[in-house]
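Forwarding these from the shared drive since the link keeps breaking.
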Amino acid sequence: MSKRQNLDQPTRQTGALAPLFDRLTDLEPHLTSEPSSYQILDPLALRESVQRELEMILNTRPTVLRSPEDGHGEFISDFALPQFFGLRDFSWFDGASDLGRRTIGIEIERVVTYYEPRLKNVKVSVNKHPTDPLSLVAEVTGNLKIGKVLERFTFPITIQNLLQRDQL
């Protein structure tokens, strides 16, 4: 059976409702019709869904610059507009320095808190990538509600620099 379960009648399910775009994705295109578009993620599929969303959020760059708050931040209210989606370019940060990585980590916490509401109490640590000098590895840790229980998970995310992505 699929990790995502269709609900054609009221039943008790453990898990969480899949995000909209996950529900719109057709995992079984050979079927001409499906009983329901409401899909529930089991605990493993929920963690995988959050991992995919974090990878997309942190490897997407906004198409326009956001207004600076204090010289280097952005207004959180701007995040709601699609052209501001993602993590701003960090290529000018010094990823080799502790201060640079902490600054990027704070930015990641803000962006993840806004764009991934399923993850609560987000904390981020950023490290140099072990083999790629143009990438960073962020460990995004947060509470994820599975059923009635909040569980703490860590999601390792490789974040590519804009310069590197433009060369692909």
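-- next protein --
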Amino acid sequence: MIDLEVHDFGLSLFESQPSGIEIRGCRFFNAYWDGPDRSHGPGLYLRNPVGGPRKTIEGNIVFQHGRQGLQGFGSVPFAHVTVEGNAFFNNGIAGDGFHRNLMFGNGSDEHEGVIIRSNLAYLPLGPARGHEYNLFGGAGGSHGLELVGNWLVHPGREAAKIQRAEGATVEGNRIVGGVSYSELGSEAEIQGAAVQDLFPLNDYYEQAPAEGCWIWMWENSRKPNLWDGRRRLTVGVLNWASAPEIEIDLTELENEGKIAAGAEVRICSVQAPSDWRTFRLHDGEIVVSLDGWGEAAPIGRDVAVNPLPPTLPAFGVFLLEWPDPGWVAEAREPQPIPDPGADLPAEQQRAARIEAWRVNDPAIRVELLQQRRRAWRAHAGPYASPASTALLIFSTLAKAEQFRTEVEVTALLEGGAGPVWIGVPTKLADGRAAIAHRLTDVDADWIRAMAEGFELQIGGLS
């Protein structure tokens, strides 16, 4: 998921099990719903099973949800997730009070190899419901946590609770508010100065500074936008003295040739995403007024009766964009795709084309898969009752009709007592015929023809 804006749902994103997923440059806000017990609606709800590829959450902005900003846990152990360069703020306020910006931990589940790096997490003083801290590690323990380079800013609250940790790296962070820590296998929890002694390579502030301005930045890690050549930067402003305007220093980007001297920079507050204003770079800096920016109130919320707590000028998150100095528009003439069957005999052309498309063109693969699903439903409809078949999965790993491997053909049958799983490890051609007869009594040769050469999943037959 790249550069999306998702808002005003019951839950911005529930990302269940697939590993290796990347979520970059998106804005998630104002997701919530009120239940009989409390408000619900985390911004991002993530799972990642042990053993899968690393999942990356980078450069996103997550704010004003009904509950947590990012909730990382599930009913299975949780592992190998990188959360980097994101801005989380004011989460929980769309519901009945501030809540956690970051939550990694639940019940007895273990966490392994979680990296939390270079993020901004901010909660101001205001209404809360008792869990307004960033949680790292649950009852099952946290193994190899890396909490590095973050700004965890919860003044007057507990900013970080690190629970049951083993082999944790905690350094380079700015922590404003309380902090606590416990080791795996121990119920003893240390707080305050004891945590500072254990992890001395952080900057600790029990209360917010009375003056000054902190500027947090995250540059979009991808190349300039492919179509207009614009670079993008996320800027978090912690304006402790509530000054009416602030200076954003872009000298480093100018020195690196990423922004031209005197460039026009477009800016919007993420809480008013349609209000873009233009400022000019002068001596490597832009001066931004913090007055008059709007706010993105949740749909259906009467802010006259139930107002959101003010954010600016004390705090704000802005998007900046400007033309990349070295960007050159690329030619976009369509390129012909070679025909893999052009030089083959007529009877071999179709099989060669299908195999090449299956491997190289996901869109065509999906289209062919949909055709086969429709054909399956048309053919098996009289047999596909709830009592016979709910789901049938073929995994062929085949070329033409030469099946080269043993696989498990798995079928889900609905019986009187509920779903029953049946696994048949066998040669695919034989296993498919046997299990197909058990499921629907349709012709095994027809099923073999339908699945030929494809990794095929068929569902929803009833």
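Residues 99 and 130 are 8 Å apart (CA to CA). The first strand starts at residue 5 and ends at 7.

- D.
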